[in-house]
Amino acid sequence: MLGRLWGRLAAGSAGHGVDAPGRAGAGLLALGGSGLARGSSRAEERIDTALLLVAAALVLLGVVMVYSASITLADSPRYKVVPTHFLLRHLFAIVVAMVAAVAAFSLPMARWQQLAPAAFGVALALLVIVLIPGVGTGALGARRWIPLAVFNLQPSELMKVACVLYAASFTVRKQDYMHSLKRGFLPIGLVMLAIGVLLQLQPDLGAFIVIVAIAMGILFLGGLNGRLFVAITVLLAVGLAAIVWLFPYRRERIFAYLDPWSAEHVLKKGYQLTHSLIAFGRGEWFGVGLGGSVEKLHYLTEAHTDFILAVIAEELGLVAVMVLIIAFYWLTKRAFEIGRQAVALERTFAGLAAQGIGIWLGVQAFINIGVASGLLPTKGLTLPLVSYGGSAMLATIVAIGLLLRVDWENRVLMRGGRA
After folding, report:
1. pLDDT band for position 237 (50/70/90)?
2. CA distance 59 to 376
């Protein structure tokens, strides 16, 4: 089925100025199955197999750990599901994400540059739609999802992909004005402000932090004036501090982070952090064994999503956590290498998009790992490619598909081809 789908996608993209997209697509799908027979050896060489394998390893680890962390939720009166409920939904999300990634890979980056404003407009519209009563659904006091027939769509996750594309496109279009506040930053600054307002109405501060990091990182890499960048960063930090201080429940999280074991916080805002730290302590170097976590037995809330790293630490140990950190470091580093290579080949949009994906993966992984280990205050963000979450998995795997596309086009150009 995927082979036929790829054939149609490849045929549809043949007119966009990239040589032999069918061979590249076959090479990509070859790594997963029967498409190898149709892929040429040259196509395989043009795919960054190391990048693909590291991403796949993180996804597979996530499948195992989501099942391990969620199997006990069948006993919870909150969910009332079978033990494999979350595993099957997670696997379905991965399949959907892989199909979407193949579609994303099939389009040249030049075409994505053209589609960037439209993609951003759709993502922005979805952020508005999710706030409409009767349309968006909520959980734990947040309204962040649009229920669909197959899964719940979280627009803030799609906005991360759209932000990468739009910020890269904006930077290329405004390259001559990157020194100017009015013409270089203000337009996208106002757009980010609108996104911030919409996300705070959900509320989803974590997604907003990641999106701002993506946009500011791309602007800086695209040549934003250094003094202007520092001034804006300071203003953003002040604004973030004000947002935290103005909302009592966010203030309490900061206080709980500073002293989670105090009698005032240990059973309230410090509850997740203390149980996450207990999980890290129990795991020691090599863990208590797969499936042996105690904290996932209704002690650590959201163990299969935001705090899945705590379950990994408890069951597989600190060694596994360090391997995970190295994997994310390598992914981030590789994304920047691909981006620099694209810029050197005078493909600025593709290069900035690749580096934006690197910023996204690096910042979000750092926040999630920092929260679970007590380095940062508690904030709800998934661990990319690992945590349970359909929209997050969809957005992140699509981002990996775009990263592979940038690298594939780099390789084609360096071999004298046309992209």
Report:
1. confident
2. 25
